[in-house]
Amino acid sequence: MSMDNKKRAEMVRKQASLKKEEAKREIKDQIADYIQMIKKEMVHVKLFLKRSTKPNKKEYKQLLRANLTGVCALGFLGYIITFIHIPINNILFGVKR
């Protein structure tokens, strides 16, 4: 019986070492896949940077106007909501003295 147990123990050790080697290979494969993915993404980034241009004065003013309009609209909306909220809140809950 002790021989069978020794053989089983050896087989278990061999299987464990094989699994460790497979896991190492899998990690290496994953790292290689990530590196390939990063290389592809860098190619896309380079192409995008080549195609992009600096905005001229007209485009810059148009973007500035659009952003300013959005900020002002949100500020005005917030002011209106606050302006309406305060009286309604006072009517509903009243001022406690």
Structure, described:
The protein is built from 2 helices and no strands. With 97 residues, the chain is mainly α. The chain folds into 2 domains: 1-52; 54-97.
Distance between the termini: 90 Å
**SS-based class:** mainly alpha
The portion of residues assigned to helices is: over 70%
- Give me the strand/helix succession: HH
Q: What's the number of domains?
A: 2
Q: How much strand?
A: under 5%
Largest sheet: none
Average pLDDT works out at: 86
Principal-axes geometry comes out as: elongated
Low-confidence stretches: none
CA radius of gyration is 34 Å
Continuous helix count: 2
Quick one: how many beta strands? 0
